[in-house]
Amino acid sequence: MSTKLKEPSNHLSGVSCSSILTAYEKCLIRLAGEQEQYSNKTKARVIQELKEHYDVMSLVEVAEIPRSTYYYWEKRLDRPDKYADVKAQILLVAHTYEGHYAYRRVTEHLKELGFEHDPKTILRLMSEMGLEASSD
Questions:
Q1: With DSSP H G I counted as helix, E B as strand and the rest as coil, what are the percentages for the chain, rounded to 5?
Q2: Helix, strand, or coil here: 96?
Q3: Closest by alpha carbon to 73, among 45, 114, 95?
Q4: Nearest CA to 94 among 116, 125, 115, 121?
């Protein structure tokens, strides 16, 4: 892994620094794959998964993010996706037309189905979902 992680200081409760570091690295790669850099959201998700087994302070140090940043993302990770129903419809439209619909046409199709969203929102959602979102 190319990202250098520092070892936590001594507020561990009987757990070795290397075991925290190893667990963090494994979980990080499992959730996000090998990357040059990881977002704070991804790091917070890893900490959230490991906090049952390790001290949050130690995990935050290993992740090299401020504690407040972790708690900021912890609040937001549990929120339901407000675009879940729209994403499901986008997938249906993309599957129906085998990915040959651009975001403007997807937006028009969604309006026919009763989903009123800005075309740029649809473009962003399609990009997040890994769908080709070319212009018409």
A1: 60, 0, 40
A2: helix
A3: 45
A4: 125
Tell me whether residue 117 is exposed, middle or buried, using C-beta atoms within 10 angstroms of its C-beta: 0 to 12, 13 to 18, 19 or more: middle
Q: What is the pTM of this model?
A: 0.60
DSSP code string of 31-80: HH-S-S---HHHHHHHHHHHTTTS-HHHHHHHHT--HHHHHHHHHHHTSP
How does pLDDT run across 72-97, given as a tens digit for each residue?
999 998 888 899 999 999 998 888 87
**Other C-beta atoms within 10 Å of 120: how many?**
10
Q: Mean pLDDT throughout 43-60?
A: 93
